[in-house]
Amino acid sequence: MTANILHITCSARAEESQSTRFSYRIVERLQPAGVTLRDLTWAPLPHVDSAYAHALAGRPPGEHNAPHLDSLARSEQLIAELDAAHAIVIGLPMHNYTIPSCLKAWVDHVLRIGHTFAPSPEGKRGLLRDRPVYIAVASGGFFTGAKANQPDFVTPYLQAALNTMGLRTLHFFALQGLVFGPERVAQAWSEATAALDAVLAPASAAAAIA
Ligand SMILES: Cc1cc2nc3c(=O)[nH]c(=O)nc-3n(C[C@H](O)[C@H](O)[C@H](O)COP(=O)(O)O)c2cc1C
Which atom number of ligand 1 is nearest to the Cα of residue 12? Predict the structure, then answer.
């Protein structure tokens, strides 16, 4: 089976980005036949605007004007990308305790009623089939573990957003304390790599997404 990966990056630090670099390490482990790269920093999506809000408001298709149709087409393309992937890899920096706004814009385009989730009396029900999502989170300080000294709205937010669409097999890898010099950066990499080895050892990587 041909495995296709959706690889999302969203760091503003170009080649210095630790989250992007680690996300490439994850992609290498998965040995995909195909990769769709979504770099949300260098090819940003528009934030939700009135055209998108109008288009989602349940109006009959005949009432949509050209901007509404463009917004819906963009959303549908992004959802199709997500749906075509056998695995998803996300590299993201912590920005002010949460995800970067360019990644939030992506969430707003794909977390869509009637397409990726359906309302029910028990709450929102995911419409996508489950598949593994590997998430590398880079931060200057510490947000998890014994040294954590700041709030973490990255992990619970992404977990809620992805779970809502039906994506429940999530693996988070933290690269933390990156402002504390090269030794700490090296240690963060070895901690994150050990965590990656535990879920995606090199030899079993291809089998994991077959
Ligand atoms: C706008 C902005 C906000 C940030 N907010 C936080 C934060 O809340 N907590 C933290 O630990 N680091 C924060 N940082 C530091 C980044 O998380 C750190 O530089 C990390 O390495 C970024 O990931 P990257 O190397 O993939 O770009 C922030 C950096 C920027 C540019």
Answer: 27
